[in-house]
From TrEMBL:
Organism annotation: Sander lucioperca (Pike-perch)
InterPro entries recorded: CD2/SLAM_rcpt (IPR015631), Ig-like_dom_sf (IPR036179), Ig-like_fold (IPR013783)
Keywords: Glycoprotein, Membrane, Signal, Transmembrane, Transmembrane helix
Encoding gene, per UniProt annotation: LOC116048867
Protein's UniProt name: Immunoglobulin subtype domain-containing protein
Keyword Membrane: yes
Localization per record: Membrane
CC per GO annotation: membrane
Endpoints of the signal sequence: none
TM regions (residue ranges): 217-236
Length: 243
């Protein structure tokens, strides 16, 4: 009997979550046993030949759910569950059918983006920010000129001691601090308009123009009322003289 072996598939799982490991095996001889193994030595479950049923290893009792065919669900994964899981058909010889390389990760810690310094003039605005996670931090500088902002310098994205990626960057008018791994992500952000109000882009120019027009209109209405009042007083005085 010939079984086609497939490569080991990498899978990342968040701690305490479950993972489904699928396998399809056709035409298994009645005398053969199908076995799921962990790191080539620990048997998780054995599908016994004939009609003898299944045997789950005591250490995995309650954590293994048997699915359709020979697929399984492993529940409540912990860091110690990281490793290679393979399924083999055991008869005269053992043949590996498929495998999964499972990596269990904690969710990343929250991040905090803070503005360390700001310097500006009527034409430009420079700022330095810090992006901090639980076990690492990076700094970066940004420059806004004529309503266009760019990232000028700072540390490149780095891998933290917890094997997560810490990254600070500019997107859609905001500075974003992102902390992520293969199973989770957290972010914090600052809007450029709140940090460099004079260099916030066309939106702020339009808003400023609207405020200016409103002030002009209010002033004009007030002036008209004052002139009308003066004319009214002048006419009343003339009428009194003619009486």
């Amino acid at each position: 009997m010939f079984y086609r072996s497939s490569a080991v598939t990498p899978v990342f799982v968040q701690k305490i979550e479950d993972v489904i490991m699928n396998v399809t095996i056709a035409d298994v001889p009645e005398e053969d046993t199908v076995i799921w193994r962990f790191n080539k030595t620990v048997n998780l479950v054995r599908f016994l030949p004939g009609n003898l049923g299944t045997k789950v290893t005591d250490d995995y009792s309650g954590r293994i759910e048997l699915l359709e065919k020979y697929s399984v669900k492993l529940k409540n994964l912990q860091e110690a569950d990281s490793g290679v899981y393979t399924v083999v058909v055991s008869g005269d010889k053992e043949k590996q059918i498929t495998g999964y390389k499972i990596t269990v990760q904690d969710p990343v810690s929250p991040v905090k983006l803070s503005v360390d310094s700001v310097s500006s003039s009527s034409d430009w605005c420079n700022l330095t920010v810090s992006c901090r996670a639980q076990d690492s931090h990076i700094n970066s500088t940004f420059r806004c000129l004529n309503h266009t902002c760019s990232q000028e310098g700072g540390e490149r994205p780095q891998v933290t001691p917890s094997a997560a990626d810490l990254h600070v960057y500019l997107a859609t008018g905001s500075i974003i601090c992102n902390h992520s791994n293969q199973v989770s992500w957290k972010k914090d952000m600052k809007t450029i308009t709140n940090v460099c109000p004079r260099h916030a882009g066309p939106e702020s120019v339009s808003a400023g123009l609207s405020v200016c027009l409103l002030k002009t209109a209010v002033f004009s209405v007030g002036l008209i009322i004052m002139v009308a009042a003066l004319i009214t007083v002048h006419l009343m005085e003339k009428l009194k003289k003619h009486e």
